[in-house]
Specification:
The chain is globular, with a radius of gyration of 16 Å. The two termini are 21 Å apart. By secondary structure, the protein is α/β, with parallel strands linked by helices. A 7-stranded mixed beta sheet has the order 1-3-4-2-5-6-7, with helices on both faces. It is built from 5 helices and 7 strands. The protein is 35% helix and 21% strand. The protein has one domain: 3-Layer(aba) Sandwich (Rossmann fold), CATH 3.40.50.300.
């Protein structure tokens, strides 16, 4: 898939206010400061489409972007270390969980994991919650340019072993870097495959 058009639609404070559209939606979410905005900009070939900030937790709404006039990329608030009040974090949590479980045209959520670290407890909890609630996910390892190939392999092996303590089968996984464009074709190809499969099923 080649992205020829990527446009910001709007930001919404809750699921009820989101547009009533039938286009497939693919959500991106991860712990604060995981490199989500950089990854979105890399995938869409559009610098500045998603706002990159040195301050974790700046995404505080459901941000919708139309891609190729055929599907929607949804930038979800990060979870974890954002410097916000307990009340705000609770609102984020409710917003995210409601979107992931109630949005009928959500096809898949990409959960971003920083490849430089072992599996963080909050990542493990979030991935586990998705599994328990039937939310379809893929795992996206970010910042792969910061490590050598052997270290990447070792870290992924460690993360997967931790997940397999509670998962029978691992979700699909992609290794990415917003600096080198690693994983770009694979992710966009996977999205295209899902969209095409859904079109075939409907016809």
């Amino acid at each position: 898939m080649k992205i020829k058009q990527a446009e910001y639609i709007a930001s919404f404070p809750n699921v009820a206010s989101c547009p009533q559209d039938s286009k497939p939606e693919f959500a991106f979410i991860g712990r604060s400061n995981v490199g989500k905005s950089s990854l979105i900009n890399m995938l869409t070939n559009k610098k500045g489409l998603a706002k990159v900030s040195v301050t974790p937790g700046k995404t505080q709404m459901l941000n919708f972007f139309e891609i190729n006039n055929s599907w929607v990329l949804v930038d979800l608030p990060g979870y974890g270390y954002a410097k916000t009040s307990k009340a705000t974090k609770a609102t984020f949590s409710k917003m995210i969980k409601t979107y992931l479980t109630e949005r009928s045209n959500l096809f898949l959520a990409f959960v971003l994991i920083d490849i430089r670290h072992s599996l963080q407890k909050i990542d493990e909890q979030f991935i586990g919650w998705c599994g328990q609630n039937g939310v379809p996910i893929c795992m996206v390892f970010t910042k792969s340019d910061k490590l050598g190939k052997n270290q990447i392999t070792q870290n992924i092996h460690t993360i997967n072993n931790a997940l397999l303590e509670t998962w029978n089968e691992l979700p699909p996984q992609f290794i990415t870097s917003s600096e080198t464009n690693a994983g770009k074709e694979e992710i966009l190809g996977y999205i295209n495959q899902i969209i095409e499969s859904s079109t075939v099923l409907k016809t």
